[in-house]
Amino acid sequence: MQFETIILGAGAAGMMCAIHAGRDVLLLDHAKAPGEKIRISGGGRCNFTNMHAGPANFLSQNPHFAKSALARYTQWDFLDLVGRHGIDWHEKTLGQLFCDDSAKQIVAMLLDEMTQAGATMWLQTTIASVDKTETGFRLVIESDGRRKTVDCRHLVIATGGKSIPKMGATGLAYDIARQFGLTLTDIRPALVPLTFPDGRFTGLAGVALPVRVSCNATRFDEAMLFTHRGLSGPAILQISSYWREGDTIRVNLFPNSDPFEALRAQRQQAGRKNLSTVLAQMLPSRLADYLTREWQIAGNLGDQSDAALGALCDRLTGWDLTPTGSEGYRTAEVTLGGIDTDGLSSKTMMSKTVPGLYFIGECVDVTGWLGGFNFQWAWSSGFAAGSAI
Ligand code: FDA
User: Fold this and answer.
1) Are 132 and 180 in contact, with CB atoms under 8 Å apart?
2) What confidence tier does 275 reach under pLDDT thresholds 50, 70, 90?
3) Is the C-beta atom of 47 inside 6 A of ligand 1?
4) Which of 384, 360, 312, 382 lies closest to 161, judged by CA?
5) Separation between Cα atoms, residue 132 and residue 354, nearest integer Å
6) What are the pLDDT digits (tens) for 64-79?
7) How many Cβ atoms are within 10 Å of 312's Cβ, its own excluded?
8) What's the pLDDT tens digit per position in 318-361?
9) In a 10 Å sphere around its CB, with 0-12 CB exposed, 13-18 middle and 19+ buried, how is residue 134 labelled?
10) Is 160 in the pocket of ligand 1 (CB under 6 A)?
């Protein structure tokens, strides 16, 4: 069987590409249903884009690579599509846009657009091999319990990264890239909770508070959550993309106020209060208790010199923590790194050395922050390849 275009992966990027790739498109996926990550994303409401999306919200060895695709299919283009399908949405925080109702609406919208575009989709299909032919590519696949050969002129790889193997993530895109001589950057789990040894924070599990967290000259002001295994919450997921084994992260527990001035003022009014009691009024009490024990905080507020209070506040605003690892691909929202963008055209996402072979979405070395940026990259890169075909 011959198709003009075959797209591997019916996720966010693959479906967007199928909508724009013109006639005679076949979309293949080994899953039972398309867009499974869309369906479960954003707690079932899908954080489908971000109002502030721009190149600065993405990590890549080449920070300029994403500019072209992001500029040609923007968050406003996607919002326009959402609007045309009558899907109601809201901004939750920091420009993050979610469905009012259900993420399933986004999947249904993409399927509807694909039907209108005339694309064919085969699910529960295994890719056995991919080879170059004189005019394009030949794939051997298993579909409906039968081995089949399908040919195409354009082959788009949109099988995503390695995050969440239980949801069907595989390294197929990386294998195909290597097979065709493209290089890969280091890949690692990102937007992932960080772990600490010996159940260090077990007693704090469930405590959350706003923090500023920094690592390797990048910082985020968002919420942090203590878990049985370590640290999570948006601030930690964000910084995990910048953290490497052995690095320390610095946590400021007072991102929006000056604890030194607050403690000095309290000292004047309530000097007889125990320092740890005062801390428990300024921080979640379980965390204040933990720090009191860890840092051996003792004595009344009135007994503390400016220097002693200053030293305490330096620790409260610069708590250095060294994670031992991350929860890995098991829970990571994305895979950082991927197919080296040096080998791809930033306009079309086509390989510079293998004409007709395209890579889009998460498998490419373009990784967004938390907050709808990864879906925006999937929409933008899917559109770039689709409209170039
Ligand atoms: P995606 O992973 O979506 O699709 C790849 C497709 O390829 C899948 O359908 C898979 O079955 C198929 N496939 C894989 N290997 C195959 C093989 N060997 N053979 C055949 N088919 C194969 N982002 C965001 O912007 N906002 C959000 O709210 C969230 N929330 C979120 C929650 C959770 C729990 C996760 C895990 C991730 C998110 N993300 C997110 C990230 C976002 O889901 C992700 O970046 C995009 O889905 C990437 O889109 P792709 O199309 O590139 O891959």
Assistant:
1) yes
2) very high
3) yes
4) 360
5) 9
6) 999 999 999 999 999 9
7) 19
8) 999 999 999 999 999 999 999 999 999 999 999 999 999 999 99
9) exposed
10) yes
Average pLDDT, integer, range 250-278: 95
Tokens of 382: 């899917």
Query: Nearest CA to 92 among 36, 54, 56, 51?
Result: 51
pLDDT at 53: 98
Contact 105, 87 (CB under 8 A): yes
Q: Which residue is it, tokens 């899953």? A: 31
- Cβ–ligand 1 distance for 10 under 6 Å, the answer yes
pTM for the whole thing?
A: 0.97
Please check the confidence at residue 199 and state whether its pLDDT lies above 90.
Answer: no
Task: Please check whether residue 44 is in contact with residue 103, taking contact to mean a CB–CB distance below 8 angstroms.
Answer: yes
Helix (H) or strand (E) holding 7: strand 2-8
Determine the 3-state secondary structure of 66 from DSSP: coil
Distance from the alpha carbon of residue 319 to the mean position of ligand 1, in angstroms: 34
Q: Encode pLDDT of 121-149 as tens digits.
A: 999 999 999 999 999 999 999 998 999 99
Q: What is the CA radius of gyration of the chain?
A: 24
Mean pLDDT, range 284-291, rounded to an integer:
97
Name the amino acid, one letter, at 23.
R
For residues 259 and 248, the answer to whether their CB atoms sit within 8 Å is: no
Place of tokens 């789990």: 189
Which residue shows structure tokens 């072209």?
68
Q: Give the separation between CA 150 and CA 141, rounded to whole angstroms.
A: 8
Q: Is the CB of 380 under 6 A from ligand 1?
A: no
pLDDT of residue 270: 87
Atom 45 in ligand 1: which residue has the minimum CA distance?
Answer: 374
- Three-state SS string over 79-136 comes to HHHHHHCCCCEEECCCCEEEECCCCHHHHHHHHHHHHHHCCEEECCCEEEEEEECCCC
